[in-house]
Specification:
Elements lengths: L13 E7 L3 E8 L11 E3 L6 H18 L7 E8 L27 H9 L3 E5 H14 L7 E7 L3 E7 L2 E2 L44 H12 L13 H13 L3 H24 L4 E6 L6 H13 L5 H6 L1 E4 L3 H18 L2
Parallel strand pairs: 1-4, 4-5, 6-9, 9-10
Antiparallel strand pairs: 1-2, 2-3, 6-7, 7-8
Helix pairs in contact: 1-2, 3-9, 4-5, 5-6, 6-7
Length: 347
């Protein structure tokens, strides 16, 4: 739904969710009854490459714009939820080494949550973007019973993000690093071919989930192995970066090369969920990222393959669900809003 038809004037106090990305911010408003006041993507440029001051100002602009769009008075806003890509602390301090989105030295160790809170004059709650998507998926799936349920989510993108939700709350950990599922090292037997080199991750680990189940894993590890086995494939003539981005389209056409690559990714996530089953025994396993944006038959095949390679006991099979993260482009902002709403509810 577009335009004013998507806008519902709030009838009670609200929280705002802000999702910060490499190119755009996305914003939403959630009222005290659990209604989102917009049901479409509302974006503005994030300006993260211009440095912290410009980026915080762009987030403030996103906040002001979404209030104007939803006809929400500032006086009704009780808190703001913010998510960004990691790595960052649980309090929203960007890693001292920066990251892909926050590469400038001025970002290293920058307290983006605190800066936005000072700029807006409102309490700001922070999550990383994968945790926010995981929290939204959890709440959408379980609804009013979400506080009594647990889940694990794997979000496949340039890297592999994740989130662990227990009793409706994101597990952040002592240093804010919990839920970094991409860097869990997994058994590779049954995932790799017998002659396939051990995959290397940009973090320095060998054989973690991200080294296989990510766009980076495709171009760094999987395509260099599989392309020579399909020398006449159209992607063999493409630069590796472009080939990696085009691969999903071939997967949707059930291309053998693409299915070999994505099959390994699904098996790797299944191995990750097997480990999660023995640590948290969750009520649900969620899968998000680029695969969710694919054609329905392909994403269902991918989810089914993940499920087939998640080794659960009979009791767990009967109790646990497998599902896709819904509303993926809005999941971050909506999850950030849920975290803000929860913070207000416990005050």
């Amino acid at each position: 739904m577009d335009g004013l038809d998507a806008v519902r004037t709030p009838s009670s106090w609200v929280v705002v969710g802000l999702d910060n990305g490499g190119t755009c911010n996305n914003a939403t408003v959630l009222d005290a009854t659990g209604r989102y006041l917009v049901d479409r993507l509302v974006e503005n440029p994030s300006r993260v490459q211009d440095g912290p001051e410009s980026a915080v100002e762009s987030l403030a602009q996103a906040f002001e714009d979404i209030l104007e769009l939803t006809r929400t008075p500032l006086s009704l806003v009780r808190a703001v939820g913010l998510d960004t890509p990691g790595p960052a602390s649980a309090d929203g301090v960007i890693s001292s080494k920066g990251s892909t989105n926050f590469s400038q030295v001025s970002w290293h160790g920058f307290d983006i949550r605190g800066a936005l809170e000072a700029r807006l004059g409102l309490p700001v709650v922070y999550l990383n973007d994968a945790n926010a998507a995981a929290l939204f998926a959890h709440n959408r799936h379980f609804g009013t019973d979400s506080a009594n349920r647990s889940s694990v989510a794997a979000i496949v993108g340039t890297g592999l993000g994740g989130g662990v939700v227990v009793d409706g709350k994101v597990v952040s950990g002592a240093a804010g690093m919990a839920g970094e599922l991409g860097h869990v090292q997994i058994p590779l037997h049954g995932v790799l071919e017998d002659d396939q080199p051990l995959p290397l991750c940009n973090c320095g680990f060998t054989g973690d989930v991200e080294s296989i189940a990510s766009l980076t894993g495709i171009k760094k590890n999987l395509l260099p192995y599989w392309l020579p086995r399909f020398p006449d494939h159209p992607l063999a003539a493409e630069p590796i970066d472009r080939a990696a981005k085009l691969l999903r389209g071939y997967g949707e056409k059930e291309d053998p090369l693409a299915l070999a690559v994505f099959g390994q990714q699904a098996k790797a996530i299944g191995s990750l969920f097997t480990i999660a089953a023995n640590f948290t025994d969750p009520d649900a396993y969620f899968l998000g990222g680029g695969v969710v944006e694919a054609a329905p038959h392909f994403r269902q095949w991918f989810l089914n393959t993940v499920r087939e390679h998640t080794q659960l006991r009979r009791e767990q099979q009967a109790a646990a669900a497998f599902a896709l993260v819904p509303d993926l482009d809005m999941a971050g902002a909506r999850g950030a809003a849920v975290a803000a709403l929860d913070s207000v509810a416990v005050v």
